[in-house]
Amino acid sequence: MINRRKTRVLLDSGDPDETVRIKELLGYLDGQTTNLSLIASNPHVVKYLASGRRFTSHQESEEYRSIVQRISSLVGSAGVSIEVFADSTTSAEHMLEQGREMYGWIDNAYIKYPCTAEGIRAAQMSVASGMRVNMTSCFSQQQAAAVYSATKGTASPVYVSPFIGRLDGIGKPGIDLVKNIQRMFLQGDGHVLVLAASIRSVEHLLQCLSIDVDLVTVPSSVLSQWAIANFPVVGPPVMHTWIGDAIPYENLDLEQPWESFDVSHALTTKGIERFTYDYEQALAPAS
Measured between alpha carbons, how far is residue 197 from residues 58, 123, 200, 255 in Å? Predict the structure, then answer.
């Protein structure tokens, strides 16, 4: 296990057995992020669905809760992020209703909402009632600024999750967004922490560690490669030729109302559409 650990490391998985394996491999695990797509990849769920059966809404909720409860006691102070179901039509009130139920599943829950207007509104209501939240599918500084503004006054830390790999996938250096959000938050009160997500390689992980990002959530395959490499915290310089330009820094006023920021982003919309499709293909409740 490495000695320098400013960045807290989370596993991105819906399998408690994987949690145990990675914790043993690393010697620690600070937390875990989950969502319904990851739950659908859980070996027990895969076997159940392969038999031709489908969960009812109640069974699905119970399965999700059971998995999350097994994970809960295995991880550290960063907790377990549990994602609500939200498509393009889901209201903040419906997200909040799901979030409240999920928040009662375990003591160390963070409820994941998307960085959409309705998701941010749900987060605002959630923190007002004392819930911890993780704002996912963040692809812009404007979205991160809106999260900051909407959740001011919370007693617990709020996570915002910029997606590195998906930005890289369209020719934008995703690590630039992480750096820009970190820089922007230097003028704030520290209540929002940056949780780098969509980590697709050890290089991505090392980029995050080298800039001391608050948290990073990583699939087991990448964490295993990192362990085999003896847990480096900085990698060799790598030259990239990006199809698009670097992501420029925006001077944003965090004291502005959250509604003043442009929270729309094509990648957030696309991510929600893919999430909905995966859900419908794998876990859509039986009628």
Answer: 30, 19, 9, 26
- Confidence band, pLDDT 50/70/90 cuts, at residue 283: low
The answer to whether residues 122 and 96 touch, using CB atoms and an 8 Å cutoff, is yes
Catalytic residue check, 112: yes
Q: Which whole number is the average pLDDT over 207-233?
A: 96
Q: Find the length of the chain.
A: 287
The residues with which 163 forms a beta bridge, in sequence order, are 197
Of the residues 6, 47, 112, 172, which is catalytic? 112
- Provide CB contacts within 8 A for 77, sequence distance 6+: 8, 30, 31
Phi and psi based region of residue 130 (left: phi greater than 0; alpha: psi -120 to 50; beta: remaining):
left
Whether 115 contacts 122, CB under 8 Å: no
Closest CA to 160 of 169, 168, 173, 151: 151
β-strand partners of 217: 10
Convert the pLDDT of each residue in 17-61 to its tens digit. Answer: 999 999 999 999 999 999 887 777 778 777 877 887 777 778 888
CB 228 within 8 A of CB 251: no
